[in-house]
Amino acid sequence: MGALRWFSLFFFFICLSCGVAQAERRVALVVGNSAYKSVARLTNPSNDAALVGAMFKKAGFDWVDARTDLNGAEMRKALRDFGARARDADVAVIYYAGHGIELDGTNYLIPIDATLETDSDVLDETVGLDRALFAVEPAKQLRLIILDACRDNPFAKTMKRTVAARAIGRGLAKVELTSPNTMIAFAAKAGSTASDGDSRNSPFAAALVERLPIPGLDLRKAFGFVRDDVLKSTGYKQEPYVYGSLGGDDVPLVAAKPVVTAPQPNPQDAVRRDYELALQIGTREVWAAFLAQYPDGFYASLAKGQLNRIAAEEARAAATEKARLAEEEKARLAADRAQKAEQDKAAAAAKAAENARIAAEKAKQVEEARAAAAEQRRKEAEAAVAKALADKAVAEKALADKIANDKAAAELAAKEAAARKAQDGGELKVATVAPTSSQPSLSPQEMAKAVQTELRRVGCLSAPADGDWKASSQRSLAMFNKYAGTKLEANNATIDALDAVKAKPGRVCPLICDRGFRADGDNCVKIACRAGYRVNDDNECEKVQDKKPTASRDQSRARDAERKSDEAAPAKPQSSGQMICNQAGCRPVARGCRLVADSTAGIGNAAGISGRSREVCN
Length: 618
Fold this sequence. Notes:
The protein is α/β, with parallel strands linked by helices. It folds into 4 domains: about 220 residues, Rossmann fold, CATH 3.40.50; about 130 residues; about 60 residues, no CATH class; about 35 residues, no CATH class. It is built from 16 helices and 17 strands. The protein has a 6-stranded mixed beta sheet, sandwiched between helices. It has a 3-stranded antiparallel beta sheet with strand order 4-5-6. β7, α6 and β8 form a beta-alpha-beta unit. α2 runs parallel beside α7, α3 packs parallel to α5 and α7 packs antiparallel against α8. The longest helix is centred in the middle third of the chain and has 86 residues. The N terminus is likely disordered. One of its GO terms (biological process) is proteolysis. GO terms for molecular function: cysteine-type endopeptidase activity.
C-alpha cells in the first residue's frame, strides 16, 4: 500500500508538470503615439492603446507592456525588450497606433520626435516594420502584428523629395510574409487610409476589443468580423485587411471556455443581491459602501434615495431632541420663577424648535415616499427585463422553427417534383433544389434604403439614405450606369441594382467640386492661393494684375472746367524780387522790370520816380 501511494503521488506530480508545460504563454506589446512634435496631435492612438492593452490583460495574457508617445530610441528599446520576452512565448502580439509611412514599397512606423523634412530622413528617424517582425519571430505558435497606422499622413505632404522617381504611397504598402504562422492586420487595405473616428476610440480599435477576445474564435474569423464592423461603422469607406496565413487548425487568441449547460446568470443579479442585503441592514455606512462598489446605474440611484431618507430621519431626530431640550429649559425657568422676558424667550425657542421638528417630520415622510416609489420602479423594471428576455427567447425559437420548416418543405417539394418527372418521362432526372434563404425578403422601402446606402458608398448619391426612391435617387442610379457600364432600370430599386452596386469595391462616380475647391480623395477641399494670387475659372492660381488708373468722362469734364476757370481769371502780378521806395511807400518791382541808377528823371520807358534809382520795364 505504501508503494502504491508513492506511485500515485509521483504520477500526480508528473501530470501536474505536464499540464504546466503545455499551458500557452502569451505576451503583448502595445504602443500608441499621439503627441507628435512636428505635426498636429492625433486624438485617439493613446486612448486606443489603453483600450487594447486592457483587453489583452483581461484576456489573461501573461505579460502586457502598454506604452504611449515613444520617441525613436524608446521604440527601438521596447521592441528589443519584447523580442527577449517572445523567446519563451507561444503567442507574441504587437499592436501599434499612430502615424506610419510607405517608401518605395517598405513600411515604417513614425516615432513622436520624427521631423522627416526629406525622404532620406525616413531611414534614420523611423522604425521599419521589419524590426517589429524580427521582435515577434521567436514565438513558437503565433506571431501577430496589428497596425492602426493607415491614417492620412501629414509628413508625406510636407516632405521634400531628393529623388524625383522615389515613391511615397498613400497609407501602407502590401506585405509579403515568408515566416509561417505570421499575420499582419492593417486598419485599412494597402494604399488606402483609415479613419480616426468621431468618438474616443478609432473604429478599428473598437472592433478589435469587441471581437478578438471571444473565447475559442479563430483569428481569421475574428478579423473577418472586425472587417464587417469597420465597413458598417464607416459607411463602407474603410476596409481592414489581413496579410499572412495560418494552418488548418483554429487559432484563437483566447482559448475556448468549458461548455456550461446551466443558464448563465444575469450580470445584474449580483448588484440586486447586494442591494437587497443593504436594504435589510439600512445604515448609512452600508449604503455608502454599496455606492463605493456600484457608483453608477439603476441600483445606485436607489441607494442614493435611501441615503436621503436616512438623512431626513437624522434631521427629524435632531429637531425632536432640540425641541425636548427647549421644553425642559422652559420648565426649568418656570420652576425657578425666572423673569418674564426669559420665559418668553424660552417659549419662542421652544416654538421654533417645534416648528423645525414638524418640518423635519414632513421632509422624512417625503423622502420615505420617494424611496418607496423608487423601490416600486425597481421591481417593475426587473419584471420588464425578465419579460423582454423571455419574449426574445420565444421569438428566436419561433424564427429557428420557421427556417427549419421552410427548409424541410422545400426539400420535400423538390423530391416530389423529381419523382413526378422521373415517372412521366420514363427516366430518372436529378431535380435542382433552389437554395433557401434564411433572411426574410426586404420591403420596397428597405430595398430603396439599401440601394441608396450603396450608391452613397460608391460616390453616386449625396442625399441621405431615407428609403424614398425619388428623382435624385433615379438620377444617381443612372449616373452609376454611365460610369459602371451597366444597364440597370433606374425607376425602381431592385435586388439586381443592389447586387451590382455592392460588387464595386470603391468609388465609381467622379467627385465633382464647386469652383474654388479641388478633389482630395473622397472630399472637396478649398484651394488656397498665396498672397497676390487668386483662383481663376479653371481652378488654378493666377497672379492678380495691377490695374492702371484710367480717367473717366466725368473726371475729364471737371479738369476742363478747372482749366477754363484758371484761364478766365486775371493774371496775378508777379515780382522780380526787388523793392522800390518813394514818398508813397515801398512796393515790389514788377516782373520784367529792373532798377537802374537814376541820372535823369522821366526819360525812356520809366515808370517815373526820381531819386537814386528808377524802375525800367522792357
